Amino acid sequence: MAGPTWVKMSVVHHQPDGPAFDVVLLLHVGCVVVAMATLVAGIATAARLRAILLASAPFPEPVKRYFRPGVNWAGRSLYGIPLFGFGLLALSSGAYSLRDGWALAGLIIIVAAVLVAEYALWPAERRLQVSLVPLVGGDTSVGEAVLRDATTMVLSAGVALLLLVGGSVLMVAQP
Q: DSSP secondary structure string, the chain?
């Protein structure tokens, strides 16, 4: 007779469900999609701005609209990601918690993305909004600070986007 067979038992949690969980999950994913879209738009528009400034070309209407002074509210959807993420944890009936490595890593990743946005991306965007007001009127002279802010915007939005993509992969995989 063969010896004892050891079977590795893993704890399998039930998959949370219910209308409240589904709505919060949709809001959470919606915030991720909107944040990614605004970051891609920021990268593309700031890169286009650099090319326009370096070529001393006239400003196209979409670039003028993008850099119109005001808060980028769509970009602030970044804050909804952890907010609704905590809601998902609360509604999961113990299936998920911050003790899960992937959940904690996701929180760290989104905090890093928010810090990049708050301390690099959005300040550069605000400075460009102020700096470009005279340039949009027809003046094409540009200082180094404007080019530097456009570059900062491209790089910081790229870093935040990479963090969001990595966090999204982590959330889907839940290793």
A: ---PPP------PPPP-SHHHHHHHHHHHHHHHHHHHHHHHHHHHHHHHHHHHHHTPPPPHHHHHHTSSS--TTGGGGGHHHHHHHHHHHHTTTSS-TTSHHHHHHHHHHHHHHHHIIIIIHHHHHHHHHHHHHHHTT-----HHHHHHHHHHHHHHHHHHHHHHHHHHHHHH--
Q: Are 67 and 49 in contact (CB under 8 A)?
A: yes
pLDDT digits (tens, 9 = 90+) for 124-151: 999 999 888 766 555 555 678 889 999 9
| Predicted model pTM | 0.84
Closest by CA to 147, choosing from 40, 41, 55, 36, is 55
Question: CA-to-CA distance for 162 and 154, rounded, in angstroms?
Answer: 12
